[in-house]
Amino acid sequence: MINNALSLCFSVVTLKSQGMKNVKNPLIFIVEDSVVYRELIVGHLQSKKFTNVKTFDNGEDCLKAIHLKPDLIVLDYSFGGINGLELMNKVKAENPLIDFVFISAQNDVEVAVNIMKLGAADYVVKNNQAPYRLVRALEELQKATKKEKMKHGFRIGVVGFFILLFLVIISIIFITTFFDL
């Protein structure tokens, strides 16, 4: 029952990407201490064309590889060493543009809501639908990133247009003032 409530609760959340650099083939870090579950996630992601995946069985190893600048980190809430929330906080302090999706058996709604308030893009409860929900979350993050990039491009275009318009007006004023037209 709690799994269904969490799934319903998080399926209506609008994802806001922090800004994937590579939308077409994002670098995804998977931090999962269960080898079987980690391989299940990787296999499912690769079958859905998410092929740029690196895996880690603990947060410390993930931190050592953070210089690779992943676009997204998919992580469990609890694993050996530092927990997922601590890992997210450490990474976001230095790399605020990296997105996070938690995939965890932790099905406490309050924990999930707090994690999302602290900056996670999504929270997926581990169950038989989790790999599918994870892919859906990644696709939504890709869409959100594309939308943000389009908005940014539009803003740059509008600003450029007004700068050009300003220069044309100044040129006309200059020409008419100095040549008495």
User: In which range does the helix fraction lie?
Assistant: 40-55%
Query: What's the story with the biggest beta sheet?
Result: 5 strands, parallel
Taking the alpha carbons of the first and last residues, their distance comes to 80 Å
Question: What is the third-level CATH name, the topology?
Answer: Rossmann fold
What is the name of the CATH architecture? Answer: 3-Layer(aba) Sandwich
Major β-sheet strand ordering: 2-1-3-4-5
What is the total number of structural domains?
1
C-alpha Rg, in Å?
22 Å
Helix and strand composition category: alpha/beta
What fraction of residues sit in β-strands?
A: 5-15%
Indicate the mean pLDDT. Answer: 81
Ranges with pLDDT <50 over ≥5 residues? 1-17
How would you name the CATH homologous superfamily?
Response regulator
Number of helices: 6
The CATH class name reads Alpha Beta
Order of helices and strands: HEHEHEHEHEH
Outline, from the CA principal axes? elongated
Instruction: Please give the number of β-strands.
Output: 5
- Regarding quaternary structure, how should these chains be classified? single chain
Write structural notes for this entry:
- Helix content is 54%, strand content 12%.
- The protein is elongated.
- It has a five-stranded parallel sheet with strand order 2-1-3-4-5, sandwiched between helices.
- The longest helix has 49 residues, at 130-178.
- Residues 1-17 have low confidence and may be disordered.
- α2 (35-47) crosses α6.
- The termini are far apart.
- α2 links the parallel β1 (28-31) and β2.
- It is an alpha/beta fold and 181 residues long.
- It has one domain: Response regulator (Rossmann fold).
- The chain is built from six helices and five strands; from the N terminus they run αβαβαβαβαβα.
